[in-house]
Design brief:
By secondary structure, this protein is α/β, with parallel strands linked by helices. The chain contains 9 helices and 7 strands; from the N terminus they run E-H-E-H-E-H-E-H-E-H-E-H-H-E-H-H. It has one domain (3-260): Rossmann fold, CATH 3.40.50.720. It has helices spanning 14-23, 37-50, 66-77, 104-132, 152-172, 191-195, 215-227, 237-247, 251-260, and strands at 3-9, 27-34, 55-60, 85-89, 134-139, 179-182, 232-233. The chain binds NADP nicotinamide-adenine-dinucleotide phosphate (NAP).
């Protein structure tokens, strides 16, 4: 068994559910975290039927709430652990549209989930990982490398995740706790629908179909990359090349290109 337990946030959908399926054969205990308890329960039943040896715990939690995060950490810390812990900080959301007309409440939640919850969970479990082993997978994005108009806070939050993960990786190198920032480009999950604002018919990210990556490429590839001690994982050749191009383009040129990009102005802020 590779890990005694794996804590996966955002396990009710997309990458998170795929990480749970991929890790079930390799873990003693899976802890599934998200708001939609019914989806987590369905997944738990599926995993327990397919892998009778794994204990699956469902932890419904709104990671945007400080109180809920604190309760989650307390209940997870009370569990007995005698081996490696893998933390998959995957929960996240976006908000397509200009910042000026955005719902501040929604963007505040986005910052809490994309950054605050990720940091708090790392802080809560690193001492255990240093003592008993483990690893951290933080889901960033290709957007981490690029300031994106109409996706401003999201891209900035992912830049935070990538930078934080890089620094953490170096701090934890001596303890042999690997940390990886996963930087996918567009992938078909629930993400686009959640990021779409009310009144905007286009729920998809502004990318061509050929640019999309499959979920298993992200999930299986990042698990292998973590084991190899990589700092970042850009799934698929096209995303690796896109990341390389962005990181090696001078900022004034990037500013010019991003300024020419068609804007996705939505004046109706999202309610939730
Ligand atoms: N899909 C892409 O194109 C893409 C590209 C790059 C990076 N990413 C990143 O990949 C990660 C996973 O997203 P996905 O693509 O799999 O999208 P998804 O299918 O929408 O999944 C997002 C997950 O985050 C959870 N979540 C959202 N708000 C939450 C909250 N307040 N409290 C607890 N859980 C919350 C959702 O669960 P509940 O709704 O049940 O709470 C869901 O399980 C995100 O960090 C996203 O930024 C996605």
């Amino acid at each position: 068994m590779k890990y005694q337990q794996a804590i996966i946030t955002g396990a009710s959908s997309g990458f998170g559910a795929a990480y749970a399926r991929a890790l079930a054969p390799e873990c003693g205990r899976l802890i599934l975290v998200a708001r939609r308890g019914d989806k987590l329960q369905e997944l738990a039943q599926e995993l327990q039927a397919a892998h009778p040896g794994v204990e699956v715990l469902v932890q419904p939690c709104d990671l945007a709430s400080a109180e809920a995060r604190q309760a989650l950490v307390s209940s997870l810390k009370a569990l007995p652990v005698s081996g490696k812990t893998l933390l998959v900080n995957n929960a996240g959301l976006g908000d397509y549209g200009e910042f000026a007309s955005a719902s501040f409440a929604r963007n505040h939640s986005m910052m809490q989930v994309n950054m605050q919850a990720l940091v708090e969970l790392c802080h809560a479990f690193i001492p255990l990982m240093k003592a008993q082993g483990g690893g951290i997978i933080n889901i960033a994005s290709l957007a981490a490398d690029l300031p994106i108009p109409d996706f401003a806070i999201y891209a900035a939050s992912k830049a935070f995740v990538a930078s934080f993960s890089e620094a953490l990786r170096l701090e934890l190198a001596a303890s042999r706790v690997p940390v990886i920032a996963v930087c996918p480009g567009p992938v078909h999950t629930g993400f686009g629908e959640v990021a779409r604002r009310n009144g905007c018919s286009d729920g998809s990210a502004p990318f061509k179909k050929w640019f999309y990556t499959a979920i298993p490429t992200v999930v299986q590839g990042s698990l292998r990359a973590l084991e190899r001690g990589k700092a970042r994982f850009y799934p698929s050749l096209k995303i690796r090349l896109a990341g390389l191009l962005v990181r090696n383009t001078p900022l004034p040129v990037l500013r010019f290109i991003m300024g020419m990009r068609p804007r996705k102005v939505t004046t109706t802020p999202s309610e939730s």
